[in-house]
Amino acid sequence: MNHTKDQLILRAIQVIDKNGYQNLSLRKLTAALNLTTGAFYKHFKDKDDLFKAVAQELSQEFIEAIDFNSSSPTEQLLQIADYFVNQMQKHPNKMEFLFFNDQSIIALKQKDLTYPFLHKLLQLIDQINTNSNMNNQDFFIQIWSFIQGYTFLIKNKVTTYQPDLVRKTLTEIMKGAN
Question: What is the pTM of this model?
Fold first, then answer.
């Protein structure tokens, strides 16, 4: 990447974190960096192209925040769940963007492995789901539905985070895979 493109991505992350991705204005984004909108279009086709680059960057940051070297695939999945819950509490706009903007949804549907988070999660699902009659896609949906649903209950203050509940529930779901 080049410096201007990196600046646009990093500034977009800051704006998204503060105001949400729905409120990101390209004109304001470029003005904050003393750039023209023409400079933006030199690096990105459109806002969706920027959002894809931002989601890939956030996905990389998400993965880099977790230590995957010293634990089993099951423990790694539990670390992902814990990190996601904590990040949703600290940075709800960023996490909402990372997992629910249109570009992330497309990546999920297409299993776009240029998203490091998705790539790692699919690897873990494959490693955990070894002796099951359930295919990896269905197993992924069960696991990720629980993690996202529980996180949104916490975000909306319906409940508070209980790591033991997450561990117990994910362990039960994973028992069906082994």
Answer: 0.88
